[in-house]
Structure formats: C-alpha cells, structure tokens
Amino acid sequence: MRLAIWCVGAVLLGGGAAAGCATGTTSFDSDFGGSGAGAANGAGPSGGSGASAGGSGPSGGQGGSSCDPNNPGTVSCGLGICKVTVPSCDSHGEPVPCVPGQPQPQELCNGPDDDCDGQTDEGCSCNDGQQQACYSGPPATQGVGPCHGGSQTCTSGQWGACQGEVPPGIEICDNVDNNCNGQIDDGNPGGGASCNTGQPGVCAAGSTVCTGGAVVCTPVQPAGAEVCGDGLDNDCDGQTDEGCGCAHDVCTQGAALTTACSACVAAICALDSYCCASGWDVTCVGETESVCGSGACAAGCPHSLCSAGPDNTPFWAYCDSPGTCVADLCAQDSWCCSTDWDSLCVGEVSSICGLNC
C-alpha cells in the first residue's frame, strides 16, 4: 500500500494525514480502494471512514499513520527560496515536519523569489549583473560619424549609466562630423571673425574660415590686377600703383601722385604726405627742387613777375630760380601759384619780395 502526502505552505504535524497539514492544502497519492482529497482539518481519501486528530483522514478502518516507510514520498512547503521538500515520514512511519526556509529581508533582483511571497523580482527593472546595449543620442545619429552605442549594467535592480557610448556633440572645426548629421564641419565652425592675414595691400583684411579641419584667416578681398591711380596695392605685392608711371608731370599741379611714380615723388611724399594723399599742389612742385635737387621745374616762369599773364596761368614755385620770390609770394598767397598770376600777385612782388616792378 502506498501513500504520498504534500503540504503546500504548511507544517506536517503528528496524527492523521489530513490533520497533519496545519495550513495550506494536502495532496494524496494512494493505493487505497477509495480515493479523495481533503483540506486540513477535513476529509481525506478513504475506502471507508477513519478518525484522526484533525478529523477524518485516509484509512482502511481506524485512523493513524498510513505512510509506508519503504516508499514514503515527499512533502513540499514554502515559496521561492523558502521552499523545502522532505520525506512524508521517517523510517518508523511517523510524519516528518516540513518547515519553510527563511526569506531574505527584501527582494534582491537576482531571478529567484527572495522574499518568498510568490513573486519574482517585483519592483526591479533588471537582474543584477545583467547587461544590455544602450545609446542616449537620437536613434538616427547612431553609427553616423563618430557616434556609436555603449553598454549598461544592472546594479541593485536598476540600469546603470551607458558606458563607452559616443553621442552627438557640438560641431567644431576638426574635419570630423561631431554632431553626427552626415556633414563634416558644417556651418563653418569657428569662422566669420575678423582677422589680419599678414599679407600686404588689400589682402591684409581677412575673415576666419574653417578649411580642412583648421580655422584659417583668408583675405576678404583677394589679390587682383593693379589699378593705377587708386593709391592701393591691388595685387598685394607690397607696391602701390607700380608700372603705372606718373599721372602727370611733377612740374604740373594736379591730382596726387603715387610713391611708385618716381624716386623723387617717393622722397617728397615721405616728407609731405599731402602730395601723395590729397593733391600735387604748388608746394609739391617746388619740393622737386628743395627735396630732390631737381631744376626741371625751374626752367623759367611763363612771363615776367611784374606782369599779369593770360587768365588762369599760375606760376610755380621756384620758376624764378635761383631766386625765391615766387616761392615766398605763393607761400602767402597760394592763388598766384594755383590759379592765376594776376595783378594782385604783381603788386605782391614789391610788398613781399621787396622787388620793384
């Protein structure tokens, strides 16, 4: 005859099989002629009626232990890690107590039911030690440029920080797609600031530009053909208006001349910048002799100092060289050397130069 008893969540006590489960349910496996199932303190399978400490239990007649020591079966009790399985009875046929194990103070997020409440890892996002792939950037940027994912590890039931990932960053000028949008150095990072290129002429003024992964200063106005008479170094070779010659004769008043016009003009403008910045006036003409030592402009005055000439016929300084009357007179009355040598100028020959006409 064979009988197996299971007490779920209970302690098997002495007495009848059914009465032996203090709480929970009892399961029987029997070779008795009759069969049945009963709860603690309830009826059990039998072929007739029997008596036990907890009520009626399995028997063929009178109540008592009916466990076969030679084939006792097992009894389990408790949940999760607290579950314990013991033989239904000892070698004497007496029931073996089933005592559940001790639960952990709290669920450990490790897979088993540590607190023995019938639930596994409740309140946990993951199991400790578990790993998964991660990426905090926009999904479309993963795998673009330097951006790639990483991994995170579960600790105390929660996912840790994403380690080893490279999310999108701010675009800088380094020949790398830092923001992972598929474009390298887009938006001219680091560019647009004013700078000095270190080049001469019009090429000096520059602006920063991101080129080839580096911020460089490039001319705002690139070198071009030299433009005569504008006073600029258009071709950025360090010379102004080279190859243009003089705009007019140095002995003639007119527009400002350039230092590249001649060595004499360069020398005059070094001392009198007006001649190359604003205009080539009578003073500039006179300086061809005083600065350059040239007598080219002292070939003689258009007419006598004591007579007025045709309208709009001025003298130039030192035209009476080696005398200085014209230069002295024009220094006080520039009209005579810029517009016309008129009757007033003739009168000043006496008052300024002390000459008699």
Order of helices and strands: EEEEEEEEEEHHHHHH
Q: Spans with pLDDT under 50 lasting ≥5 residues?
A: 1-64
**Rg over alpha carbons:** 58 Å
Mean pLDDT value: 79
**Biggest pleated sheet:** 3 strands, antiparallel
What sort of overall outline do the alpha carbons produce when their principal axes are compared? rod-shaped
- Judged by helices, strands and strand pairing, the structural class is alpha+beta
- What is the spatial order of strands in the main beta sheet? 5-6-7
Q: Identify the quaternary structure here.
A: single chain
Number of strands: 10
The tally of helices reads 6
The rounded distance between the terminal residues' Cα atoms is: 169 Å
Strand content: 5-15%
Helix content: 10-25%
Short description:
This protein is α+β, with helices and mostly antiparallel strands and 357 residues long. The chain contains six helices and ten strands.
Structure characterization notes:
The protein has 357 residues and is α+β, with helices and mostly antiparallel strands. Among the domains are: 1-103, no CATH class; 244-296, no CATH class; 298-357, no CATH class. Helices cover 13% and strands 13% of the residues. It is built from 6 helices and 10 strands, in the order E-E-E-E-E-E-E-E-E-E-H-H-H-H-H-H. The chain has a 3-stranded antiparallel sheet with strand order 5-6-7, with no helix packed on it. The relative contact order is 0.05. Residues 1-64 have low confidence and may be disordered.
